[in-house]
Design brief:
The protein has 27 helices and 24 strands. The protein is an alpha/beta fold and 763 residues long. The protein has an 8-stranded mixed beta barrel, surrounded by 5 helices. Helix 1 packs antiparallel against helix 2 and helix 2 runs antiparallel to helix 7. Bound molecules: ligand C2E and magnesium ion (2 copies). One magnesium ion binds next to loops.
Length: 763
């Protein structure tokens, strides 16, 4: 009977040891794979536990001496490995370091030497022996330690105590929540050590202490990898929530407030015990919010601090099956952020200097107005530009420039009636949007005419041009409409009398045309699309004495272009200088070819040429280059040249005349030329424009004027030349009056150089 009982016990324990070995192996493998820092030392410790467990199993299970002996060795040697593994695990788990590398090497060496000593037992039998006893009527081989075996025990126990001490210190010095982690392992270890000591001291035949170690290993496995300090987490959550800058309220499933954080109390001016008052106090914040599960809303609340803005978010908390656990409400004070945003918006919408709308906001407002307007409503969209504003800044300084812009802003306020909007588009440009045809161009014209800004004692007239576009096509983008208004405005460039222009489609066509030919000029000169035509100049006897070079553009796309199609455009944008320089070169080239002929060529000089080049130097250089006698090149200036910087111009003309060139005053009588001017002007020839007489109703009067001009110029030693002579009668009359030179269709129209040579140089 005892035999059966003994067998059952030994079998039972064998089974337990086997299960524990498998469990240690599985947990060890899991630990090694874990990404946690503790994973590897834990896994290694668990694997180290397997040999002593298996050793113990062999001792318990075997009925013969050899397996029991092998079990003993496995047990002892395994214990050394286990202790070292335990040490490594402990240091990592408790985040303690080896005091020094030397200590580590020392411990390792001791354990190694001990293992060596244990293995030497095979030969010397000095440490322990195997004793056969009867257990429940069956042979049982147990280990008998000799004195040297105590060395092993001292070593193992010292290290175990070191481990226990580390856990103990950690347990004492950690916060209560964390101490739990260490305490569990500490107590398990103490119990296991005591249990083991009991077997050692009592020499109870069936040593089951490894069950304790294995159990400790599994506990360590759980606490290291899976244990989560729930209370700690809770505490952290509560602490964080309590300190959150947002007001937080938690409700149970019945809607009763169960908790609020500090901010929540402050917001509703309640204390922690006033939970029942929360729903009532929250009412102003919840007005208008939905009764759904989760929602967010923004509310404005007026309280003693003034208007405040809040962002509310409510979330329902449900369990795994969807039943309501409760809810929380988060109230964030957005006032600061909102005010900042509003300030930024204000800044983005209003120009700092003038306080007017900025371009993006003006566009936005215009779009809004158009979207809200009735179908038939007509608006005027106006683009305003200060002419020569850069000059104003340069001459009077930017402070004055700023003052000008501010005064313009005030002026626009007078122009735009209620219901309209206006703003600063940038720099010196402004935009207006005026409803109901209320943009009164005449009134605006009058306002702009007298628009002055005072700079000290000086009243400075600021020239403002406005282009108005009547908005009919609602589909157009605001920027396109402003482009059109800008085109109308640009049509007034250099116009000092008119301030307002209305856009029509012809303007756009012109604009496109201007841009096209301006872009093409350079290439047109290079490819000889630009050519000089010559119109003969005739003397009293009818002999051709010279020619005027007049430009023509043989355009590949637009055909033959007369100067009126492009010269005024190039005069506006300054490209005329390039064109004229080329024409003068052609004239010189021609004169060089006609070296043996007694013919001169007149070339036109635009007033703008003087801005862009040193006219005298250029012309002199050309005649030198082609070796042409300056006396054969006549220079035609118009009275426009004399509008500004008169003294300098006179100096240039004197210079040219001194160099031998003939200077002619072109189009005399077509503009503002006065007879008085003649006496101051350094000119040799005056070209009287017949065209201006042609419209005069009174022929007799016209005749008298002509007669006077001719007389006076002759008196002043200026040769009179009449252009625009179309009839024989005109030629005869002019000859009678004393005119010396003639140009006009009566003699010939301008013609290509080849034709001119064929007609007049053939002989
Ligand atoms: P302009 O210098 O006064 O040239 C005389 C213009 O009168 C020429 O027109 C000529 O064809 C025209 N004409 C001549 N005789 C008669 C006539 O009997 N009856 C009428 N109705 N017209 C006559 P065009 O060639 O069309 O040139 C127009 C203007 O273009 C020129 O007036 C001149 O101011 C400018 N222009 C022409 N070529 C050049 C140039 O190379 N450079 C510059 N800056 N301007 C030029
Ligand atoms: Mg001319
Ligand atoms: Mg002329």
């Amino acid at each position: 009977m005892a035999w059966v009982f003994g067998m059952t016990i030994r079998l039972g324990f064998s089974l337990i040891f086997m299960v524990l070995s498998v469990a240690l192996a599985v947990c060890g493998a899991v630990a090694l794979r874990s990404k946690k820092e503790i994973g590897v030392p834990l896994g290694r410790m668990l694997f180290c536990l397997i040999p002593p467990v298996v050793g113990n199993l062999l001792i318990i299970a075997s009925a013969t001496e050899l397996p029991a002996t092998i079990g003993c060795y496995l047990y002892y040697v395994g214990i050394n490995f286990t202790v070292f593994g335990l040490l490594r695990y402990t240091l990592t788990y408790c985040k303690v370091d080896w005091v020094s590398d030397r200590l580590r090497v020392f411990v390792l060496s001791l354990l190694g030497l001990d293992i060596l000593q244990l293995l030497c037992n095979i030969f010397f039998h000095h440490a322990f022996g195997i004793e056969r006893i009867e257990l429940y009527g069956r042979p049982y081989y147990r280990m008998v330690p000799y004195l040297p075996q105590n060395l092993h025990r001292v070593l193992v126990y010292s290290l175990l105590f070191a481990v226990v001490a580390v856990f103990f210190t950690k347990m004492l010095h950690s916060s209560r929540i964390h101490a739990r982690r260490y305490a569990v392992i500490f107590f398990t270890l103490v119990v296991v050590i005591l249990w083991c000591t009991f077997y050692v001291v009592s020499r109870t035949p069936l040593d089951r202490s490894m069950i304790g170690y294995a159990f400790f290993g599994l506990m360590a496995f759980y606490f290291s990898l899976y244990y989560k300090p729930v209370r700690l987490l809770n505490r952290i959550m509560v602490d964080i929530s309590a300190e959150l800058p947002d007001a937080l309220y938690f409700f149970d499933d019945a809607g009763t407030c169960i908790w609020m954080n500090k901010e929540g109390m402050q917001l509703l001016r309640l204390s922690a015990g006033d939970l029942d008052a929360v729903p009532e106090r929250l009412k102003p914040y919840l007005a208008g919010s939905q009764e759904t599960d989760n929602w967010t809303s923004d509310v404005e609340v007026e309280n003693e601090k003034g208007k405040r803005y809040y962002h509310l978010e409510r979330r329902t908390i449900r369990d795994g099956r969807g039943r309501i656990d409760g809810a929380f409400l988060n109230v964030r004070d957005d006032t600061q952020a909102r005010l900042k945003l509003m300030q930024e918006e204000q800044r983005a919408r209003h120009d700092e200097l003038t306080g007017l709308f900025t371009r993006p906001y003006l566009y936005h407002r215009i779009r809004e107005l158009m979207a809200g307007a009735g179908r038939g409503e007509v608006y005027d969209l106006v683009f305003a530009n200060v002419s020569g504003f850069k000059l104003v800044n340069d001459i009077f300084g930017t402070a004055f420039g700023d003052k000008v812009l501010q005064k313009i802003a005030a002026l626009l306020g007078e122009i735009v009636p209620a219901g309209g909007v206006y703003g600063r588009l940038g720099g010196d440009t402004f935009g207006l949007f005026v409803p109901d045809r209320a943009f009164d161009a005449e009134r605006v014209e009058a306002l702009l005419k007298d628009f002055t800004v005072s700079a000290g004692d000086v009243e400075y007239h600021v020239l403002i041009h406005m282009g108005a576009y009547e908005v009919r096509e609602r589909g157009l983008d605001v920027s396109v409409m402003f482009d059109r208004a800008r085109i109308a405005c640009a049509s007034l460039q250099n116009d000092y009398h008119t301030h307002v222009a209305r856009y029509d489609d012809a303007m756009r066509v012109n604009m496109v045309w201007e841009q096209q030919i301006t872009g093409e000029l350079h290439n047109a000169i290079k490819t000889r699309q630009i050519i000089p035509y010559l119109q003969p100049l005739v003397d009293v006897s009818g002999r051709v004495v010279g020619a005027e070079a007049l430009v023509r553009w043989n355009h590949p796309e637009h055909g033959f272009l007369a100067p009126y199609r492009f010269v005024p455009i190039f005069e506006r944008n300054g490209m005329i200088a390039e064109l004229d320089r080329y024409m003068w070169r052609c004239a010189c080239e021609q004169l060089a070819e006609w070296r043996d002929r007694d013919l001169f060529i007149s070339v036109n000089i635009s007033p703008k040429d003087f801005y862009f080049m040193d006219v005298a130097a250029e012309i002199k250089a050309l005649t030198r280059e082609y070796d042409v006698d300056p006396a054969r090149l006549c220079i035609e200036i118009t009275e426009g040249v004399m509008i500004s910087d008169v003294e300098n111009k006179i100096r240039i003309l004197d210079d040219l005349r001194d160099a031998g060139f003939v200077v002619e005053m072109d189009d005399f009588g077509s503009g503002y030329s006065s007879l008085n001017m003649l006496k101051n002007m350094p000119i040799d020839v005056i070209k009287i424009d017949m065209v201006f007489l042609r419209n005069a109703e009174d022929d007799v009067k016209s005749g008298k004027i002509l007669q006077n001009i001719i007389h006076m110029s002759t008196d002043l030693n200026i040769v009179p030349l009449t252009e625009g002579v179309e009839t024989k009668k005109q030629y005869d009359d002019l000859t009678q009056m004393g005119c010396k030179l003639f140009q006009g269709y009566y003699f010939a129209k301008p013609m290509p150089v080849g034709d001119f040579e064929a007609h007049y140089l053939a002989a």
